[in-house]
């Protein structure tokens, strides 16, 4: 007896949970900045999260969270506002690439004991199985529509070449963290100084909006193709 294959669902419990967590954090930051003094709050955050030991701990925490498919990229909000963009990019790369390597290893080991349940990221694994070139992997890292944990675990489960996998992570995430860190740091600088956002600050925000739209469109297209392929196989 064959069981029907579930279609990929972009509104799974895991995705909803991640979305709610991000929404709550963003809402909390917004309320804190609105109610309190932005300059004082940013100075307090710098004192707490900007020290060398705290920064090292955040990088390690980010790596561990991504290794075990937790939303480690949220550490971005504890690093980017309190460090210059170039330093923030380096710190974020250290945490996220280490986490990608750890998740790859964990997923590769789990793949030796396969279960017969279809995973939430089956659509992404199917896509990477067919298109695993360096350019494709870089694109998946750059575009925000593809959670890092899904890319990491799909790469490990498929046994993609580790060198290419890590190179794509470094190149793609360098671009992505560059846009994020520049946008966040520029915004916090404007809040701290009480000045309006400058054109050089608005440009990264515009680039981020474009990446979000492209990522969402590409993810929808890949999931739709995967759904059609499942229907054809049945």
Features:
10 helices; mainly alpha; 0% strand; 234 residues; disordered N terminus
What does this structure look like?
This protein has 234 residues and is an all-alpha fold. It has one domain (13-233). It contains 10 helices and no strands. The two termini are 13 Å apart. The chain crosses the membrane at residues 20-36, 56-79, 86-104, 201-218. Keywords: Cell membrane, Membrane, Transmembrane, Transmembrane helix. Residues 71-184 form the VTT domain.
Sheet-strand content, in percent, reads under 5%
Question: Which regions are unreliable across 5 or more consecutive residues at pLDDT < 50?
Answer: 1-16
Span of the ends, CA to CA: 13 Å
Number of strands: 0
| Average residue pLDDT | 75
**Mind summarizing the main beta sheet?**
none
The count of helical stretches stands at 10
Rg for CA atoms: 19 Å
Q: Structurally, how many domains make up the residues? A: 1
Secondary structure: helix percent:
over 70%
The secondary-structure element order is HHHHHHHHHH
Topology:
Layout: H1 13-35, H2 38-49, H3 52-67, H4 76-79, H5 85-110, H6 122-130, H7 134-142, H8 148-158, H9 162-193, H10 199-233
Helix pairs in contact: 2-9, 3-5, 5-8, 5-9, 6-8, 6-10, 7-9, 9-10
Put the structure in a nutshell:
Belongs to the TVP38/TMEM64 family. It is a multi-pass membrane protein. The chain is mainly α.
């Amino acid at each position: 007896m064959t069981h029907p294959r579930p279609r990929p669902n972009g509104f799974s419990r895991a995705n909803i949970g991640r979305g709610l967590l991000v929404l709550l954090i963003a809402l909390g930051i917004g309320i804190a900045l609105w109610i309190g003094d932005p300059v004082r709050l940013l100075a307090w955050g710098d004192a707490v999260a900007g020290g060398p030991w705290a920064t090292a701990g955040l990088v390690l925490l980010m790596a561990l969270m991504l290794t075990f498919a937790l939303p480690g990229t949220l550490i971005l909000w504890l690093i980017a506002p309190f460090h210059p963009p170039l330093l923030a990019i380096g710190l974020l790369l250290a945490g996220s690439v280490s986490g990608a390597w750890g998740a790859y290893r964990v997923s590769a080991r789990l793949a030796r004991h396969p279960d017969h349940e279809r995973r939430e990221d089956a659509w992404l694994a199917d896509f990477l199985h067919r298109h695993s070139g360096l350019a494709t992997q870089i694109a998946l890292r750059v575009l925000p529509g593809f959670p890092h944990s899904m890319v990491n675990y799909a790469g490990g489960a498929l046994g993609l070449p580790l060198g290419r996998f890590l190179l794509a992570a470094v190149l793609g995430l360098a671009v992505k963290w560059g846009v994020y860190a520049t946008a966040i740091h520029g915004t916090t600088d404007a809040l701290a100084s009480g000045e309006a956002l400058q054109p050089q600050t608005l440009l990264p925000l515009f680039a981020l909006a474009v990446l979000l739209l492209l990522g969402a469109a590409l993810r929808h297209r890949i999931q739709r193709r995967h759904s059609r392929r499942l229907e054809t196989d049945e």
